[in-house]
Amino acid sequence: ARKRFDFVIKAKEKITLFEVNFYREGGSKLEATSGEYIKLNETLKKNGFRFIWISDGLGWLSSSSYLEEAFLANDYVFNLKMIKSGILEEIL
Question: How far apart are CA 43 and CA 35, in angstroms?
Answer without folding.
Answer: 13
